[in-house]
Amino acid sequence: MNNPFEFFGLDTDATQRALDVRYTELKKELMEKRFEIGEAGDDAARKLGMIDACYEEAKAAIYARDCQHDDGDKYLDIERLIKNGSLNDAQRKLDELPSRDAEWHYLQSIIYYKQNWFLESKKQLEFAMSMDDANPKYRNSYDKLTKIMASKTVRPEDLRTKEESTQGRQVNNGVPTCTGNCCCDLCLANSCCNCMSSCMHC
Questions:
Q1: Cα(140)–Cα(143) distance, rounded to whole angstroms?
Q2: pLDDT given for residue 202 in this prediction
Q3: Among 112, 107, 85, residue whose Cα is nearest residue 166
Q4: What angle do CA 83, 89, 73 make, to 5 degrees?
Q5: What pLDDT sits at residue 189?
Q6: Cα 31 from Cα 25, distance rounded (Å)
Q7: Which one, of 179, 165, 172, lies nearest residue 115 by Cα?
Q8: Which residue(s) pair with 175 in the sheet?
Q9: Most distant pair of Cα atoms in the chain: their distance
Q10: Contact 94, 107 (CB under 8 A)
Q11: CA–CA dist 108, 124 (Å, integer)
């Protein structure tokens, strides 16, 4: 049936415990009535054959509703962390969420934007719009970001991907490299040493 909660006489916001209690009560009632003669017995037998399926459907609806509510509360917490500038904590909480829906990608785009990873931010907004193209918040953010990226206020290095923006800048506790690659740096240092050694023998 379209609304399994109606089968048990419950509202759609009923808790799992309320559903369990009503399921037990109704099943016991139907098992007693099924032996009655006439329409009442037939109706009880028919409902008894439906009760388990309706119970499972209602239980699944409650689970989905509660999970959505939990994610919504976590999203509010992540938004608060972003506004306070706690981007690492916001990213950690975002990564801990079990599902990645449109809002997840939207918040990820904001975190990337705050770190000047504009291309990565744009990709996340595109994911969000592909999953929920009717949400004006995603479209407006995408349009604003596109204008910002097209303006002269954005530095060329900020238009790199996340990987490119960190490549060669720092390794090993923040020590910068010369060539952007540790192996190349070692080769360069070795060449310099050989050159200096040759000069000292001259």
A1: 5
A2: 40
A3: 112
A4: 70
A5: 42
A6: 10
A7: 165
A8: 171
A9: 118
A10: yes
A11: 7
Q: Are 173 and 149 in contact (CB under 8 A)?
A: no
60 close to 68: Cβ distance less than 8 angstroms: no
From the number of C-beta atoms within 10 Å of its C-beta (0-12, 13-18, 19+), residue 121 rates as: buried
112 in Cβ contact with 162 (< 8 Å):
yes
Please report, as a single letter, which amino acid is at residue 95.
D
For the chain, how many residues are written? 202
- Kindly list the averaged pLDDT for each block of 10 residues, start to end, along the chain of length 202: 87 90 94 91 93 92 71 80 93 88 93 92 95 90 92 71 48 38 44 40 42
Query: Which residue, chain included where needed, has tokens 């506790």?
Result: 173
Q: Which residue has the tokens 């049936």?
A: 1
Read off the amino acid at residue 202: C
DSSP conformational letter for 89: H
